[in-house]
Amino acid sequence: MMSSIRQLPWLCFYVYTITRSIRCETNNAAPSPPRQIRLQSLVATRVVLTWKAPLYVNGSHLTYYINYTSSSSTMVTSKTSTQPTITLVGLAPYTNYTVSIQAATYFQINNRSPILLTSNKSKILFTTRQAKPSPPINVRVDTMLAYSVGIKWQRPLVSNGPISYYTVCYTINFSSKQTCRKTTTTKSRFTNLKPFSSYLLIVRAVNVESATKLESKWSTQIQFRTLSSIPSQPRQLTATDKQIQSVHLKWHKPSNPNGAIAKYEIIVVQGKGIDPSNYDSNTLVVNNTVSGSISAFTITGLTELTRYSVWIVAVNIRRTDKAKLASSPSQVITFDTKGGVNTAPQKIMSLQVTSTSALITWQQPLFSTPRSVNSYYIRYFKSTRSDGNRFPQSTRERRFHLTNLDIYTSYTIDIAAYVRPLLSPYASYNFTTKQAVPDTPPNCTATETNLTSLLVKWNPYSSRDNAIAFYQLTFQSQFETKIVKTIQTRLQETNLTPDTNYNITISAFANNTKLLSGLPCQLLARTGKKNIHESKSTAAPLVIAGVLPCLLVIVIIVVAVCVVRHRKRCCNNHMQKNDDKDTETNAHCYEMPSIAQTTRAIDDLDMTESNAYNSVTVETSEIASYADAGTTVMQSKVESLTTSDDSIIYEEVNS
After folding, report:
1. Which of 15, 285, 575, 645 is 20 to 30 Å from 117 at the Cα level?
2. How far apart are CA 312 and CA 453, in angstroms?
3. Last-in-domain residue among 410, 432, 454
4. Residue range(s) defining the domain that contains residue 355
5. CA 451, CA 448: separation in Å to the nearest integer?
6. Over the range 161-182, which residues count as b (16 or more CB within 10 Å of their CB) and which as e?
7. For 8-46, what is each residue's pLDDT tens digit?
8. List of residues 6+ apart from 279 with CB closer than 8 A
């Protein structure tokens, strides 16, 4: 009964008031504890708790006192609430917490001060959810090789839960493509890397809760470069600008240098078909080392007209231990040095040159080192046709006899020395075959074309036209000799005498002075003959036109002389009879015809001559011109004679 009263302080107070006889013990009449505490919401840093009110409040102003502490700390945090719920914030993720809740009320009797009554504690234990961890720390390179790298790091300072795994990612040469892998430990190893390549690496931690990934931020990135390795072989080795004692080499760097190429080793060996891994050291000519930054080099000090094999090796130097990392040899190429002027046959000469053959001699090449010539290669062709046929020949002697050549033709001959396995440069020499005396010009013919011309034709020489400068034709008759030159194989000669035999000679000449053909072609031809009637009709006018002027002139002269002499005799007789008495008559006796009178007499005779001449028909232009010329000459003679006779007459009269 007492215990029941203790649990009902208000009832005890009521009974005491009425009866004044019941002793009530209210010291332990506190509210009962909160009931059914629950986690309404739980995350990594916050929790919402709810509960039910005490079964017995036992007072007024019900208040709840909440105290909580974590397993990682001894500090107690207190909260109050007037409602059966509370939200706790600022919690640590993935941490065990203990929360105790007390109910408290106030009890007051009469005017006494209120008494705080607290219930027993109700407790609940819970663990906060996981959260993203902090980034891993102290990420570093543990081991470094050319194709692999080992990485280590430390756990995050704040894990916020059990670390499920770590994600490690890297990029090569600052590209955007990442390569990642997972690990549950704090170290990892990457393989199949590229030698001498730059990498960026980062790490992060991952918590997993209820299939949810809680990833940390990336760690501080680290940069590293893998070590050098053996490079791939140099590519596309070529030999250019091959000279007498040098050659220029070009190549491309390895497709996978696997480091900074430190140098290239150039190996030159005499011969061909050389195996770089197994060759006679006695044939080694050059073993040069050049910088890895260049891709071309000129090899000097070689021997002319020699075959060589060459290859190149790329070399890297590992920075950690200075080890030499040499590539496999490049492709082996073969080249031949050129032969200089001295390596070609010397002092070529042509002896015993005829119209169709020549003997060519020469001397052995002048090599810088003793060499033996296996044979000589010869080719010759016509100089005027360098694109024509070439006639290759070979001989072991230092002379060669060329036959079946064309007459009077320029030839070029090239001679090279064959020094196994190479051929020296060709030495060239020019010569010209001599001229030959050709036969009589073939098929000579001469035909009449008209009264004064002949057509002469002949065939050209089949293979010797290039030696003939011109043809000379001689036309010889009893009246004349004519010489004509031509480069054609036909000639029509005009202005010949009609009906006349001509001896025709055709000769071929190589130049203006030297007769080329052995026997000239000789022909006999005759010009055309005129018709008989035509000749008579033509001859009569010729005689009349030529003779008549002469006769007229003679008649005039005779008449003039007779007149002068007759008058002179008459005057003498008259003077003897009259004894100079009749002076006037004597003077009249001595009057002579004047020059004008004589001229008029001559003009009358000319008119008579002209009328007679015009009555004659002259058929040919040569006859007409000849008659005109004769008339003019005769007229001038008459005038001169007349003038001369007049002067003589006057002199006689005066005397």
Report:
1. 15
2. 88
3. 432
4. 341-432
5. 8
6. bebbebbbebbeeeeeeeeeee
7. 444 444 444 454 444 444 444 789 999 999 999 999 999
8. 269
Instruction: Name the nearest CA neighbour of 255 among 237, 239, 231, 238.
Output: 231
Question: What's the predicted TM-score (pTM) here?
Answer: 0.49
What is the Cα Rg of the chain in Å?
A: 74
Let me know: does 438 contact 510? Beta carbons within 8 Å. no
* Residue 433 vs residues 361, 384, 389, 404, 488: alpha-carbon distances, Å: 16, 13, 18, 11, 24
pLDDT tens digits along 575-626: 555 554 444 444 444 444 544 455 454 455 444 444 433 433 333 333 334 4
User: Is the same domain home to 567 and 645?
Assistant: yes
Whole-number Å distance between alpha carbons of 117 and 161 = 41
* Residue pointed to by tokens 């496999």: 328
Q: Torsion-angle region of residue 284: left (phi > 0), alpha (psi -120 to 50) or beta?
A: beta
End-to-end CA distance of the chain: give it in Å, rounded: 234
Output helix, strand, coil percentages for the chain, rounded to the nearest 5. 20, 40, 40
Say if CB 323 and CB 317 are below 8 A apart.
Answer: yes
State CA 84 to chain mean position distance: 95
Which one-letter amino acid corresponds to residue 647? S
Cα separation, 93 vs 133, whole angstroms: 10
Phi, psi of 339 (to 5 degrees): -100, 135
For 241: left if phi > 0, alpha if psi spans -120 to 50, otherwise beta; the answer is left
What amino acid occupies position 332?
V
Tell whether 289 is covered by a domain: yes
